Structures are given as structure tokens and as C-alpha cells.
Amino acid sequence: MAQLLITGGAGFIGSHTCLVLLQEGHSLIVLDNYSNSSPVALERVAALAELSFSANGERERLELVQGNIGDRECLEQLFNTACKRGKPIEAVIHFAGLKAVGESVREPLRYWNVNLTGTGCLLAAMDSHSCRTLVFSSSATLYGYPDTTPIPETAPIQPINPYGHSKAAVEQLLHDLAASDPNQWRIACLRYFNPVGAHPSGTIGEDPLGRPNNLFPFVSQVAVGRRESLQVFGGDWPTRDGTCIRDYIHVMDLAEGHRSALECLFAEPAQVLTLNLGSGQGASVLEVVQAFEQASGRKVPYEVVGRRDGDAAITIADPASALHRLGWRTQRTLDDICLDGWAWQSANPSGYGDLG
Ligand code: UD1
Hints:
Blueprint lengths: L2 E5 L4 H13 L2 E6 L6 H10 L13 E5 L5 H13 L6 E4 L6 H6 L1 H21 L4 E7 L22 H19 L5 E7 L1 E3 L18 H9 L6 E4 L11 E2 L1 E3 H17 L3 E7 L5 E2 H12 L5 E4 L8 E2 L4 H7 L7 H14 L9
Parallel strand pairs: 1-2, 1-4, 2-3, 4-5, 5-6, 6-11, 7-10, 8-13, 9-14
Antiparallel strand pairs: 9-12
Helix pairs in contact: 1-2, 1-8, 3-5, 5-6, 7-9, 9-11
Uridine-diphosphate-N-acetylglucosamine binds next to strand 7, helix 7 and strand 8.
């Protein structure tokens, strides 16, 4: 079992992945600045993983460090301390970053700084400590307005906003780095489609800051009565019911995808692996609303309004490479997503703000 550094491990995808990795037996150091996450998520992860405590009362296998990926001193300390303890960091799973598309258009400098410069700082620290195994959170946003659907990894990279540009730049940096030092770097760029849902226990889930930009948390908040109604962005798209189609992936499937990617990197020679993580199935906005109503037993009132800038009609992954390279495919359906998402939302109507 390995000692891993998880950046952004308190966030939505990070926390679910931490749980899967702990259950696998790995030891984790989580670096998070809690700018869009809560340490409470990791306390709950620790409880779900039933971590034991050492004789001096310290929790085993999960250490939390508050800090930024762009803080080289902090990173040096992390790597050095792990080394001194005789458990050097063997791999990094890098979730930390900013991810709101609209915000990235308004604040490109902040996005480039955190997502690209921050990642550069992390990579430099890894390199200087000879830790060259990395799983990177990339995004289907790289494909922009896709020309084909389902979308294979070979589709053109054509992001349409600063968030997407910063993710594409990191992928390029990772290729350049791997090429500069052949046979050293083991890298997986995982291009997520639309991660949604929650752990079936309902104790960890997505907790967006303020008004959600994304469909799934908005629908959940309407169902639980935190918001009045959903605006459906466009009813005139060239799709079966006129609303946009996306590839929603259960966050536990996604978390398991990280576990499989890490196993593959450890087992195979140095490489840069680039994989879509999606289900290969599409659901329209109205189908999501319907499935959520069914799972929650609540009404989700909505009105159809104009299209949102930057949306594509249909985005669906071709997940064949992930199956071929990792033996991974999604196991959970849209109904599972809605049931688990509702378990989380109904037990935590205000997210991690509802302590207890
Ligand atoms: C968005 C991001 C993408 C990011 C992904 C993470 C944009 C343009 N893209 O993808 O970069 O990787 O989240 O999950 O923001 N919708 C409504 N009403 C709402 C919210 C959304 O009708 O209140 C519709 C959207 O128009 C879209 C679908 O729901 O058709 C999904 O939207 P969203 O959850 O924001 O995901 P994406 O836009 O696919």
C-alpha cells in the first residue's frame, strides 16, 4: 500500500476518492486550502473508512494539511516530513484547482495562476523529491463544442473558456515534462464528464459555494426547498426533448476510476495516459429532473428559459479506452445517482454547514 499526496482532497471528487483509496489500504496526506471545501468532509470520510487510532491518539492513514499547491515551502515540508517518517510520497492525485467556468471568464489571471502556476509548483516539488507518478483531474471541457459524439480522447482539444484553457495547458505541460525525462513520469490525465451524485451513505456529497452553476446541485436544492425553481437553459436544442444532453457520472464510479488509474500507473512502465471518464450514456436536462423527482418523491418546478452561453447540445464520452486500459466502466445508473444525491441533500440541506 502506498503513501499518497491528495491535493484538493476535501472537495467533492477528492473526498469520495479519498474514501475509496483509504478502503483500498493506502495512506493519505491531504493538502487543501478549503477555499471551496470543508475539513468536515474528511472527518466523515475517516468515519466511513473506520480508521483506527494509534496509541498516542493520532488517527492513522489520513493526515490533513491546510495549504496551497502554489506554496513551495509547504510542499517541501510535506515531502520532507513524509520522507523522514520513512513513508515517502509515492504518488500524487491532483484535484486542487478552480473550476467555475463563468468565474474563469471574469478572473482569468486567478484561474491561470492557481490551475497552471500552482500545478507547476507542485510538479517541481514532486520532481525534486523523485516522486513522478501523478493522476491529474482534467475535464471534458477540453473538447469545447465537440465535432463528434460520443467523444473519443483523440477528438480535437479546443477549449472555449479560461478554465478549459488552463486545463489544456496543464495537459500540455505534463506531456512536455514526460518527454523531457523519458521513462520517469507515470501520468494519468483523467477527463471527467459531468460528476454528480454522492456516497450512498448520504454523509458526503457536493456542497457548492453560493448559488450552484451546475444542474445537479441546483436540482437537488430545489427538491429540498432551498430554491424555488430551476431554470432550464434552452428548450430548442437539436435533441430528443429540446434540452441539452450530458454524460452524468456517479462520483463513486469516478472515484473508483482514480483507483484503477493509479493501479495501472504503478503496474505499467512510464507513460502519459489520457482517458475519458464517463458513462457513454446521455441524459437530457428534463430526464435528470424527472429521475430526481422519482428518487426524491419531491416536485422540481422548472421553467424553460433562453440558452446559456457556452453550452453544447450534446456531450457524451466514448469511455472505451478507460475500459480497455483500466478495465474500468461505470457501474451506477442515473437512478442511483439521484437516489444517492438525494440521500446527501435531504440529510444535509445546507451541505457541510449542517454540522452534527
Ligand atoms: C459544466 C462546465 C464544465 C465542467 C462541468 C463540471 C460550463 C459551460 N461547463 O459542464 O466545464 O467541467 O460543469 O461538472 O459551465 N443547466 C440548466 N439549468 C441550470 C444549470 C444547468 O438547464 O441551472 C443545463 C445546462 O445548460 C447544461 C446541463 O444543464 O445543458 C448541464 O449543465 P452543468 O451541470 O452546468 O454542466 P456542463 O455545462 O455540462
